[in-house]
């Protein structure tokens, strides 16, 4: 799944502390998208954000802690789920939101960098896992409502259905240079709905 989020670092109410955090996270996102975790330097982030180095080092301490806060901020700012009244409509909205995020030059590069970093850094991996758990939690009620409407079998694993929508979009992002277009998003949603209706995501009896 994806973030499907607004740009990290958008200023929110909360005074100077919130503005400093927003500026630092925006700068960190830019730096991460450009050079990956290996080139994420706290002093450079402070320069970009136009804040004191001491502030950045005191609050975040390390690049991995900064990435963790960036992901938390992105999860906080992610757009709410769309409820259309049908499972296909809801999952198509989810897939298109993921696609827009991953197809965005800055956001797509940022997610590639975070995913790459997560393969070799446990703290980044944990932060990335938390981000996606939040996003799956936000969208799984759409699938639960489909179960309650009788669109899907009882016992459907609602979280796995949500994950299945995003999976082919991330695979395409990471393994192909083909455009990540809206048609790909719609196919992902339609394939997931077909599989869910067929019982593919029904939990096995204990």
Short description:
With 206 residues, this protein is mostly helical. The chain has two domains: 15-74, Orthogonal Bundle (Arc Repressor Mutant, subunit A); 80-197, Tetracycline Repressor, domain 2 (Orthogonal Bundle), CATH 1.10.357.10. It contains nine helices and no strands.
Structure notes:
The chain is mainly α and 206 residues long. It folds into 2 domains: 60 residues, Arc Repressor Mutant, subunit A (Orthogonal Bundle), CATH 1.10.10.60; 118 residues, Tetracycline Repressor, domain 2. It is elongated. About 4% of the residues have low confidence.
Topology:
Blueprint lengths: L14 H21 L6 H8 L3 H7 L3 H15 L9 H17 L1 H14 L3 H28 L8 H18 L6 H16 L9
